[in-house]
Amino acid sequence: MTSPRDQAMSEWVAQQFLGAAIEIAPLAGDASFRRYARIHVDGKSSMLMDAPPPQEDCRPFVSIAEMLLAQGVRVPKILAQDLEQGFLLLEDFGDTVLSAVLSADTVDQYYQQAINQLIGLQKIAVPTAALPDYQAEKLISEMRLFDQWFLPQFLQMQLSQSEQELLAQTYQYLAEQALAQPQVLVHRDYHSRNLMVLADEPTLGVIDFQDAVIGAISYDLVSLLRDAYVQWPDEQVKGWIKTYWQRAQVNGLMVEVSLAQFERWFDAMAAQRHLKVLGIFVRLSQRDGKHGYLNDLPLVLSYLVKECQAQPELSAFANWLRDRVVPLFVVSVPRSQSMFEG
After folding, report:
1. Exposure of 209 by Cβ count < 10 A (0-12 exposed, 13-18 middle, 19+ buried)?
2. Which portions of the chain are predicted below pLDDT 70?
3. How do residues 297-317 score in pLDDT, each as one tens digit?
């Protein structure tokens, strides 16, 4: 039986292609309430985004897309829109997400492209108030998903008063490190599942940018190089960090910032992001029934442990992760034990 939402979607699509034979092919969803479908009409295709109000709001997507397109960033063109109903018709970027073509032989080539694309994003002079600031309150509220979902819901861990204080101190430190960095346009999910390989084009396509903010310069590089879905050797990652730092220096994004300082910022920003991601993945599973994200918890937690160990200011938190969190996690996910040995 067709739902009222599906009926409204079909009617809206029909209005965009009056009299044409239309085929609507639903696609797999993402971590939000948004749905996607490919529209086939007369041998051509486009993408439908279904963002049902009040759970989703198309307006940020549209305004950010227009801003990025005006600056030459390769995001999908908007072909038609109905903001009240939450329907967008978009240029079709195809099916080749970056994650599908990455291998030991191809990753450097593609990550060089992604780093160049990122530099272009960060050089955009964003109009005042066009994007929200990634403020301390937001950074901390995201990290608190770790103690609201990952610890109590996944590990069944109850925190003592001293442990709560340790987490609060850690969150405050990581937020301060983010705010100490140059503030630029931040995509917030700049990773291999949100970059598209486009046929016959030298640049990568960028999608899922509707949550963009003004925030720390290292954030999107963290998303790319410490991807929750794929891992690369530490030395290779360090090489890409240096490559990005050099290009950012040349482009005036980080004046008089040493590589060592940027690496510290990178690890601190990565810890903030991975605290958030651990909570989000558990929430997606337990609240939304999207259990596949649990498969990525071991990699994200192993990232977090290493990132905190690299920061002398987080030694107490790193020890706590090692002594309290990792043993409980290994009991819950036995296959992860090898990731925390040594």
Report:
1. buried
2. 1, 29-32, 342
3. 999 999 999 999 999 999 999
The rounded distance, in Å, linking the Cα atoms of 234 and 303 is: 11
**Spatial separation of the C-alpha atoms in residues 147 and 209, rounded to whole Å:** 27
pLDDT at 255: 86
CA distance 297 to 299: 6
In whole angstroms, give the CA distance from residue 315 to residue 221: 24
> What is the maximum span of the chain, computed from C-alpha positions, in angstroms?
67
Domains in the chain, start-ordered, CATH in brackets?
A: 4-91 (3.30.200.20), 98-340 (3.90.1200.10)
Say whether the peptide bond before residue 54 is cis (omega within 30 degrees of 0). yes
The reported pLDDT for the residue numbered 128 is 83
Q: Which residues contact 199 (CB under 8 A, 6 or more apart)?
A: 94, 96
Residues 117, 27: Cα–Cα separation, whole Å: 26
Sign of CA dihedral 68, 70, 73, 79: positive
Q: What is the pLDDT of residue 6?
A: 87
Sign of CA dihedral 221, 117, 88, 100: negative
CA contacts within 13 A on the Cβ side of 166: 15
Task: Provide the whole-model pTM.
Answer: 0.93
- For the record, the structure tokens of 223 come out as 């998303």
Taking alpha carbons only, the member of 84, 77, 36 closest to residue 59 is 84
The helix/strand/coil state of 209 is: coil
pLDDT at residue 264, as a whole number:
97
